[in-house]
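Morning, I've got a small favour to ask if you have a moment. It would help a lot if you went through both lines with me. Thanks so much in advance, here it is.

***
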Amino acid sequence: MTEPPIQMNLARHVLTAGATTPDKIALAVLHPALEPEIWSYRRLIAAIRGTASGFLQAGLVPGDRILLRLGNRPAFPIAYLGAIAAGLVPVPSSAQLTAPEITRLAATIRPALVIAGDGIALPDHPAPVLPESALSGFAALPPAGWHMGPPDRLAYILFTSGSSGQPRAVAHAHRAILARRMMMEDWSGLRADDRLLHAGAFNWSFTLGTGLMDPWTIGATALIPADGTPPAAVATLAARHHATLLAGAPGVFRKMLQTGWPNWPALRHGLCAGERLEPALRQEWRTRTGTDLHEAMGMSECSTFLSGSPSRPAPTGTAGYPQRGRKVALLDDLGRSLGAGLAGRLAVSADDAGLCLGYLDQPQETAARITNGWFLTGDLAVAADDGAIAMLGRTDDLMNAGGFRVAPPEIETPLSQVAQAGDLAVAEITLRAGVSIIAAFWTGTAPEEALRDKAASDLAGYKQPRAYIHLDALPRTATGKINRRALRETHSKDRL
């Protein structure tokens, strides 16, 4: 990656290519039964720069924070990039959060403005509230100039998913957009003529980055299903609108495969992130579609840095390879680099252009994640001789089975191969003080005996779950990841 410029603005960087093709479709919001809502680059850029003017005319000053309480509508990315264009700091948040939850997050970031979509819970906070209807009026204002400055200055704030604790505010710099070029080259294979459909919510960093910022950075077209589109309908909608790439969490792909498959000659491949891609799901996708699924491993603090790609698919059971330009290591408990075949803590270089500035107002928390020039991801992994890296789970998801440490994927991978298993996860649950077991949770119609038989044939005795608990749905975070912490807390009780 080339050196960042002395002065830059993330929003300007994202929209520069599109400005050269103003009549090309930048964004299409797709409705199952209605005509799509079309935004050309000309219309999108005008709305973003007009929104920047509206924020400044409202009295906000560069550095002020704006809490976004918006649904999956164009207002979300327009407000997001409009804020950044003006030197303000947007803070995306899930529309699913309750009033108490968003009140706690607002207390952390201290917003100068809250933008409110209809029916979305608002925080108990003194910041003024701007309704989405008033925000739309900003689009017609004269364009604001780009607020230029050092690439290391604060651009936006994301919240971690909170899957293993309380969400933390992650501060990102304008330079973060520059690192995304490595993802395009070594994960998505994105081209300017692509039509990329992302099935996630706008507040998710995976959607904002892969689904919107990346296509716009190179002048491609972003396709987004309208609010309320069921996952099972996404494939038909994508095929109808000639999507060439499809992105989403593995669960979305699983639901699509449960329905009839449309005629879709334009599809080149799919992009997965957010949770581990099971090999069985990848193989089923290949068989059904004739294309591949490429997984990427990332985090709120650095987005993606490991991935498979069309030019270098990930070997089965791995997350792929470090993207070119990234420095990745596996470390032991003393912070020393480990060689191939040795499980360790996954880390990225503290100098990575895509790495966050740190946790907002938490310098000690930030420093605790850095050791010997490496930022610790909180994941365990092991590298093969060719550099492909297999994920072993979160450090806080490790289970203790008879004195052995067991990572969830060791058990989930074979069990997910059982027909009709549905969504599946394992977690360690407590029966009583000092006594815990591994439990398997599944949502499909597969009988418990089929899962037990598979565990008996494929897993060492100490890895085999001692309890099988059927659920209607697995608990998930606001971004769709399996929430193992919730499984542990809900089911750790006396089951004897």
Remarks:
- The chain is about 30% helix and 25% strand.
- The mean pLDDT is 91.
- The longest strand covers residues 374-383.
- Residues 134 and 489 are 42 Å apart (CA to CA).
